[in-house]
Each structure stands twice: as structure tokens, then as C-alpha cells.
Amino acid sequence: MNKDWIEFGFALGRFLLFACTAVLAVGILMLDVVIFDSSLGEASLTEITQEAVLVLIIGVLYAQSRLENYTRVSLLMAGFFACMLIRELDFLFDEWRHGSWVYFALVIAMIASCKGFLDAPRAWKELAEYTKTQEYEMLSMGLMAILVLSRLFGMGILWQAILEEGYARVAKNSVEEGLELWGYLLALVAVLRHYVRVSKDHSS
């Protein structure tokens, strides 16, 4: 088979994989809103799926940190996503003290930073290498959806202007949480792809 056709096939496969993350995110959101009649609170399927995906991301990154090539950057990334998980679970920490999730996140961030930068030159080298990969670009897209798009499209003032008298908070929440879930799924695919590739390089 022509090499160009093979490369096109792989590119098409990647596109379909990315498309599946969007379909899955919307599917879970529809289950929540249409079937379960949820207002997308902390106990919603969408929120629980976000937290489960974050746990998977952290697990994959920790496993990757056991390999030789990306030890430091994997620990730093695992710490970053652990902080995001703590933020998602803020309602649990609020049972103890409101806003206390920040303290736990700071502890995790300091531990991850100390471990990651234990060998600073190596950490920066690994980070530079990672930014050259396709997985980095995909992870960046996921983080863009989580940290930027979901916040911009989730602004209450925007939906009040669009829906006027028909404004319902669930409309805003649906867009915001749906984009967050899509971003987390993109991030999961990115770290999984990178882990598989690094594992193959490590075993060869």
C-alpha cells in the first residue's frame, strides 16, 4: 500500500478519535439533562465522569513517571491534574471548611514541584521534548477547553442576553460542564497516547 495512503489513514483515525471524545461528552451530558433531568450539580453524571477521567489521567501520568524518559515532567503534570481534581471535589473539602481545597491543592503542588524539579535541568529538558510532540498540542487543546472556553461560554451574562426571559441556569451549566468534560477527555486521550508511545520506546 502507498505510504501516503497509510499516513492519511492514521490521520483520519486520529480525527475520528478526537470526534469520539466530543460525541462522548455530549452523550453523557444528554443522559444527565434529558434522561436524569439533572441540573448538573456535584452529584451529576457529568461531574462524576469529569472526576473519574481526572483520576485516570493522574494514574497514567504516575505510571509514565516510572519510565526513564519522562520521569520529572510526568510528576509535574500529575501534580497539576491532582490539583484540578481537588478543585473539582471542592464540595467535599467545604464540609470541613469553606475554600479549604486551596490548602490541599497547594500541598500537592509543592510536593509535585519538589519531586519534579529535584533534577531541574532534566525536568526542563523533558518539558522541552514534550512540547514538540503531537500529544502536547492535543493536551493544550483540552486545557484550552477546560480553562478558557468553558469559562467564556459559561458566563451567566451571555446566556441571560441570549435567552432573555427564558433564561435557565441549566443552559449555562450544560455548556460549561460539557466543554469541561470534552477537555478532560481530550487530555486523557493525549496522555494515553503519549504513555503508549513512550512505553514502546522504553521497551525497545
β-strand number: 0
Helix content: over 70%
List segments where confidence is low: pLDDT < 50 over at least 5 consecutive residues.
none
Number of structurally distinct domains: 1
Kindly estimate the percentage of residues that lie in beta strands according to DSSP: under 5%
Mean residue pLDDT:
91
> Which word captures the global form?
globular
Q: Could you state the oligomeric state of the chains shown?
A: single chain
Q: Major β-sheet, in short?
A: none
Q: Which structural class do the helices and strands define?
A: mainly alpha
Order of helices and strands: HHHHHHHHH
What separation lies between the terminal Cα atoms? 26 Å
Number of helices: 9
Rg calc: 19 Å
Provide a quick synopsis of the model.
This protein is an all-alpha fold and 204 residues long.
